[in-house]
Amino acid sequence: MWEYTDRVMDHFENPRNVGVVSRIDGEGQVGSLSCGDALRLTIQVDKDRDVIEDAKFQTFGCASAIASSSALTEMIKGKTVDQALNITNQDIADFLGGLPREKMHCSVMGQEALEAAVANYRGLPPRAVQGDVVCHCFGVTEQEIEKVIRANRLTSVEEITQFTKAGGGCGKCLPELEAILDRVLHKKPSNGSGNAEKAPPKMTALKRIKLIEEVISDEIAPALMRDGGDIELVDVDGNEVVVALKGACSSCPASKRTLADFVTDRLRALVDPNIVVRESRS
Amino acid sequence: METIYLDNNATTKVDPEVLEAMLPFFKEEYGNPSSMHLKGGEVAASLRQARLSLAALIGCEPHEIVYTSCGTESDNAAIWSALRTQPDKKHLVTSKVEHSAIINNAAFLRRLGYRVTEVGVDRLGRLDMEELTRSLTPDTALVTILWANNETGVLFPVEEIGALCRERGITFHTDAVQAVGKIPIDLKNLKIDMLALSGHKLHAPKGIGALYVRHGLKFAPFMIGGHQENGRRGGTENVPYIVGLGKAAELALARLPEENGRVRAMRDRLEEGLLRIPSTMVNGDREFRLPNTTNISFEYVEGESILFHLSHAGICASSGSACTSGSLEPSHVLRAMGVPFTAAHGSIRLSLAITNTEAEIDKALGIFPGVIKKLRDLSPFWKDGAPALDNALLTCDTSCQVCN
After folding, report:
1. In total, how many domains does chain A have?
2. Does residue A127 lie in a domain region?
3. Is residue A16 located within the same domain as residue A115?
4. pLDDT at residue A196 above 50?
5. Is the Cβ of A142 closer than 8 Å to some Cβ of chain B?
6. What would the mean pLDDT of B362-371 be, rounded to a whole number?
7. A180 and A216, same domain (yes or no)
8. If contacts are CB pairs under 8 Å, which of residues 200-229 in chain A contact chain B?
9. Above 90 in pLDDT, residue B16?
10. Taking CB atoms and an 8 Å limit, are B380 and A29 in contact across chains?
């Protein structure tokens, strides 16, 4: 039997802030039913002060997933959005008096849901899938793994599985996890498989805009046209690329997330890993 | 708070009569049965009696029983004996839904260069007999297939499997840890070469098991040592526990009608009652199944959460969900059966015993609906008393092996 703290059991038995906020200003969904845990976080924000007035959750998962979600909502209520973003998965675990190591991925899920909800509130596209998917059983990318290794100072492959689930399915990616761990711990350069690791090429602002234009017209637009959609570049402001979606894409809410992921992914891979894509609201 | 123990496939309560029978062997009857004196002699006589009782329960001769420390040791002894006595044969046949004692031996044997066939099951957990038949070759040293599945209670046709193996001269071992004591077993009328059983599943204590080895079968000991158990398992006999298992076997034989009557009726009533909760299903063949076991999935909620709420209310059960298994994937048995992931994560196994009462079943039936409702009210996949099938999180976009 898992050794849960009284605080975990309290938040599991008496979860706080269950449901959906009355006015959804930001929404983050992570996990999936198939993976065994899923969390939907909604936040209501006082826009003048940028303060999270209310936060509610719905969670499918084990006791620690429910407790982590409940804890998260308690922790972010009353905080400014920026303050909330400083919360780490370890903070969530600490709030609960600790989680079993095997359950740390529940706290990571909470932190990711928060990031997603804030991105949604700020009108940013959901965090794109960056880098290669390493663990195909649970869809965990190289970049996510590296981030969690650094944030939690992980030192073993077993810990990576406990924190991200990567490697917990068929186990085929375990050698790759070992290599990633080795690279992060010894600060070795990437073996080139992850695009996000590439240093941004130096170029002038004009060249950069031209490159973005080319990628959109030659790479991205043709792919969208195959599905009856289209895309137009509206503006480039520093790392922010503003695009307008046309045709079938613009009216299909289900495809938007995938679309934003796709556009962001291509631009980050081919132009600059720091690019953020925003959809034109006009 | 009163405990309602519905996890008897995990372990059972030691019967007071069993404990009573064991106690003298911790006190005055401390002799070594091998000793040529009074103290050894009285203990040896008790061991003979215990062996007779166990032989009666499974319908074999007393000398066909080898005592071990647990079911896992019995499985190991069977597998390694079959391979060592047939060193030229390099193929093993088993199923996809075995106990970890078999699964992990099979994986190890693969690394040693053996070929292993894992026969699949259908949606109801029934063994694919065609695949099994096809897999048997002249190179096959051993077929090891469990008799009753620990998670679903589904029974495999060991009579038929035994006949197939015997025709081809292939050794057949069955892990019957969940079957012994719950269904009638008559080994002299079955073509089974070896059978593993465990004491703590039938109201004897943990730490005692046995392996049936058919008379005439070549056997190579797993535990190499002294002459005990006719040279088939070295080590001084665990006298109090062997006596305890003997008593438990005697009681189990007498209680078989009750197990298949009253216990079965309670199980059926519990199952029927739980199926009234919406979006609920039974996993496994309800016809050909142990009388005490049901495996029920409560869709759109997660098993560990159900278990903790049940435990809070005094009910002990188990789950095939990922979170409870210590791994990150739901039960290999449910996955082999192709149980959809919406159901696999919310599966609960309830396993009864003669120690359970009608009043407990009533109480459990009163507790379950509230627990499931509480969790569904939290779930993003449940809305207004029905599944929220429009939720985008229902599936993930990876080529996930959990679902596939």
Report:
1. 3
2. no
3. yes
4. no
5. no
6. 97
7. no
8. none
9. yes
10. yes
How do residues B186-226 score in pLDDT, each as one tens digit?
999 999 999 999 999 999 999 999 999 999 999 999 999 99
Query: Considering A149, A177, A197, which residue would you say is the last residue of a domain?
Result: A197
Q: How far is CA B66 from CA A266, B83, B102, B213, B233, in A?
A: 66, 18, 19, 7, 7
CA B110 to chain centre: 24
Assess if residue A126 is contained within a domain: no
Task: Fill in the amino acid letter for A253.
Answer: P
Q: What is the DSSP string of B345-381?
A: TTEEEEE--TT--HHHHHHHHHHHHHHHHHHHHH-TT
ipTM of the complex: 0.85
Identify the three-state secondary structure at position B3. Answer: coil
Structural domain boundaries, residue A150: 133-197
Average pLDDT, chain B: 93
Looking at the fold, whether A10 and A109 belong to one and the same domain comes out as: yes
Q: What is the pLDDT of residue A248?
A: 61
Alpha-carbon distance A30 to nearest alpha carbon in chain B (angstroms):
7
More confident residue, B60 or B332: B60
Domain pair B4-8+256-394 / B16-252, same fold: no
Q: Which of residues 120-139 of A touch B (CB under 8 A)?
A: 133, 136-139
Spell out which residues of chain B touch residue A32, defining contact as CB-CB under 8 Å: 393-396
CATH number of B16-252: 3.40.640.10
pLDDT at A36: 81
Please indicate, yes or no, whether residues A189 and A209 belong to a single structural domain of this protein.
no
Torsion angle (degrees, nearest 10) of CA A10, A12, A17, A18: -150
Interface of B to A at Cβ within 8 Å reads 300-305, 308-309, 312, 321-324, 326-330, 341-342, 345, 377-381, 391-403
Distance from C-alpha of A128 to C-alpha of A276, rounded to nearest angstrom: 9
**B40: which residues sit within 8 A by CB, 6+ positions away?**
B31, B32, B33, B34
Do B323 and A36 make contact, defined as CB atoms within 8 angstroms?
A: yes
Sequence ranges of the domains in chain B? 4-8+256-394, 16-252
Q: B284 in the Ramachandran plot: left (φ > 0), alpha (ψ -120 to 50) or beta?
A: left
Residue A63, in any domain of the structure: yes
Domain B4-8+256-394, CATH: 3.90.1150.10
Residues A161 and A214 in one domain: no
> Each residue of B291-339: pLDDT tens digit?
999 999 999 999 999 999 999 999 999 997 766 655 667 889 999 999 9
- φ, ψ of residue B283 to 5 degrees: the values are -95, 125
Specify whether A149 is located in the same domain as A212: no
Indicate whether B403 pLDDT > 80. no
